[in-house]
């Protein structure tokens, strides 16, 4: 989950207060009072009503400013008012210091009961015994999230993603119309091959003289409009390695495959969009603001990135006149998109795991975070929102989204298709170290100083060591 995404999340949470909580969810919880601190009515005052059992206090941590924390606390207050057993207090920690603060608190034995966790840290914290097994959290409930959203370590579910996000192809419809080029397909069975994607990008790439890359006299140093941009943040690059028949890891994430020819070839194809095809701007894969730099800036006709952009930035751009669309990703050999979602965890240091899970179950239900879904930041986690068209209409029919049929095909159906695969951090340890090293390894590949094959081969043993948590 990206920084811009999460900063927007807390700001949107206030919308949930307008929507309110469904009466069904608010009537009961399964939590039982701890019994600690309970007081009894004095025998000398029979007319006085007994005081209620003291609520179990749960601390929930999140990244964000104090103001964002207060907005989230207002949502938690809705939960607190819905039952008599639990009281949730929100602890906001700035993004820049979040994991450092959690590590300090862990060392001191003072972790919160539950909280947000970066995707790339979930399995590592679980392997170190810092997270509770939440496999039974939804037993007897009809609100269990999709299996694809479970973070699993050694066969146990240690977290569920709070939202179901996938990678998409965004595009500027006005640029396509002006060039008389057909829109990218929003149906999986019509997805472009990589070659078709590049060929279309050339038709939409223009230099200052109006020439395209495949025309004589084209000046690659004076491009005024690019045809495409493929996000090259390390974790998103795995999409293309998988699509080309390779991958970063084996099936259980214990062995590194990124050195295979299929994987390095896929990464090189992404680099060649800038280096050889001249259809993409230079990107070194360091910042997650690709949609803002491309589609919203009006400099690129189509760009890949996560669905959350619909709510974090594109809804505002749409309101200001941006005519954009959504489509499925192109493919090399296999049709692939990655699904992901930031995790909510229960820390093992808590004395109240049952109550912490009750809060997470409530907080994660669509009825209680509807503002995030309606805005386009989150996608629902329950299968019924994808299969029941009445619910899909409730979710998708709103002015923040592209047209219903387009979005349903390119997002709703795509997320449930065979193309959707879980990002590797759902099951692979030490992805923080691996992705950090991979990002630095590929730096010279994007500028053409070396090839993907050469760079990865040179650093392959170090990447394998990172996968095992070795320095």
Automatic annotation (TrEMBL):
The lineage's top-level taxon is Bacteria
The UniProt regions of compositional bias labelled Polar residues, in chain numbering, are 41-50
Annotated region (Disordered) at: 28-54
Q: Which Gene3D superfamilies does the UniProt entry name for this protein?
A: Periplasmic binding protein-like II
Q: By its UniProt entry, which PROSITE patterns does this protein fall under?
A: PROKAR_LIPOPROTEIN
What SUPFAM superfamilies does the annotation carry?
Periplasmic binding protein-like II (SSF53850)
Task: Please give the Pfam families that the UniProt record associates with this protein.
Answer: SBP_bac_8
Q: What is this protein called?
A: Sugar ABC transporter substrate-binding protein
Organism in which the protein naturally occurs: Cohnella herbarum
- Taxon lineage: Bacteria, Bacillati, Bacillota, Bacilli, Bacillales
